Amino acid sequence: MLEMFKPTWMVERAYEISPAALKRQGIRAVFSDLDNTLIAWNNPNGTPELRTWMEELHQAGIPLIVVSNNSRARIGKAVQKLDLPYVARSLKPLSFGITRARKKLGLATSEVVMVGDQLLTDVAAANHAHIRSILVKPLIETDKWVTRPNRFMEKFVMQDLQKQYPDMDWQEELK
């Protein structure tokens, strides 16, 4: 059961994932969580690094789609300035949102990756959908109140994962 929470890769920030590395892995689309992955949960404007990364993905022909458990209103407001497509109420850790986005693009499971900051939702949803995942560190240390219980449990899951998979570590590049 523990392997359900094991990410394919671990990279500190989403912005560090190069389009070239994604293409080497056969990835043609990036699905991403929103809060504390792309933007800080309390700052919907994003950072210059996010905008640069989005432009690099666009230039490489790799779409970026937000797959979030948030409501349509919350995501729409948050990504309005970023002009990103999204799937709201994705029901992570279940695979519904990821599968819906993947099928809409007409891509195989091997051609998409889920990027997120939580093992219990983002990584678990990717594994349920049989796609690869990239765990990133949260952009800021605080979370919305609904995320705090997951963060607490996640510490124990991460400890167990690192015991079972001692080579699981943060990387600078997708390998």
| Element string (H = helix, E = strand) | EHEHEHEHEHEH
How many beta-strand elements? 6
Pairing-aware structural class of the strands and helices?
Answer: alpha/beta
Number of helical regions:
6
The end-to-end span amounts to: 24 Å
Outline the low-pLDDT stretches. Answer: none
Average pLDDT reading:
91
Q: Report the helical percentage.
A: 25-40%
Biggest sheet, spatial arrangement of strands: 1-6-5-2-3-4
Biggest sheet features:
6 strands, parallel
Radius of gyration: 15 Å
Categorize the overall geometry.
globular
* Multimeric status of the protein: single chain
Strand content: 5-15%
Structure, described:
The chain has six helices and six strands, in the order E-H-E-H-E-H-E-H-E-H-E-H. It is α/β, with parallel strands linked by helices and 175 residues long. It has a six-stranded parallel beta sheet with strand order 1-6-5-2-3-4, sandwiched between helices. The longest helix has 17 residues, at 148-164.
